[in-house]
């Protein structure tokens, strides 16, 4: 479903991306509108699927999840049953923050957050015990340079 998004919608979305916890009054004041029209626009954007769930962004390192690995996966399996099991395994693992199917030499890339290298190895051992994988390469992120959830509007 395609929805028309005008400049006011973009301003509201920008405010929500920045801080979804702010009040309707605050958002309305910042975008130059009043509370009711802002609420109606937010409701319309939710119904259209532009706005999904609301969450809080937590600090992984403050919670002891100090290691971020990017995991490159090559598989020789491309059957529907294997893919179903693989995707179910990824969805069941809370360490997997992101998973993408790629074009090119690598089939999948995962973003995995764990406490340390030992925790990554436990994740890896569990993964390969559940699904057959041809090749796995793990890359440890030494420094996070940019991470954002803000979409360019």
TrEMBL record:
<keyword id="KW-0238">DNA-binding</keyword>
<feature type="domain" description="HTH asnC-type">
    <location>
        <begin position="5"/>
        <end position="66"/>
    </location>
</feature>
<dbReference type="GO" id="GO:0043565">
    <property type="term" value="F:sequence-specific DNA binding"/>
</dbReference>
<dbReference type="Pfam" id="PF01037">
    <property type="entry name" value="AsnC_trans_reg"/>
</dbReference>
<protein>
    <submittedName>
        <fullName>Glutamate uptake regulatory protein, putative</fullName>
    </submittedName>
</protein>
<dbReference type="InterPro" id="IPR019885">
    <property type="entry name" value="Tscrpt_reg_HTH_AsnC-type_CS"/>
</dbReference>
<dbReference type="InterPro" id="IPR011008">
    <property type="entry name" value="Dimeric_a/b-barrel"/>
</dbReference>
<dbReference type="GO" id="GO:0005829">
    <property type="term" value="C:cytosol"/>
</dbReference>
<keyword id="KW-0804">Transcription</keyword>
<dbReference type="Pfam" id="PF13412">
    <property type="entry name" value="HTH_24"/>
</dbReference>
<dbReference type="GO" id="GO:0006355">
    <property type="term" value="P:regulation of DNA-templated transcription"/>
</dbReference>
<dbReference type="InterPro" id="IPR019888">
    <property type="entry name" value="Tscrpt_reg_AsnC-like"/>
</dbReference>
<dbReference type="InterPro" id="IPR011991">
    <property type="entry name" value="ArsR-like_HTH"/>
</dbReference>
<keyword id="KW-0805">Transcription regulation</keyword>
<dbReference type="InterPro" id="IPR036388">
    <property type="entry name" value="WH-like_DNA-bd_sf"/>
</dbReference>
<dbReference type="InterPro" id="IPR000485">
    <property type="entry name" value="AsnC-type_HTH_dom"/>
</dbReference>
<dbReference type="InterPro" id="IPR019887">
    <property type="entry name" value="Tscrpt_reg_AsnC/Lrp_C"/>
</dbReference>
<dbReference type="InterPro" id="IPR036390">
    <property type="entry name" value="WH_DNA-bd_sf"/>
</dbReference>
<dbReference type="GO" id="GO:0043200">
    <property type="term" value="P:response to amino acid"/>
</dbReference>
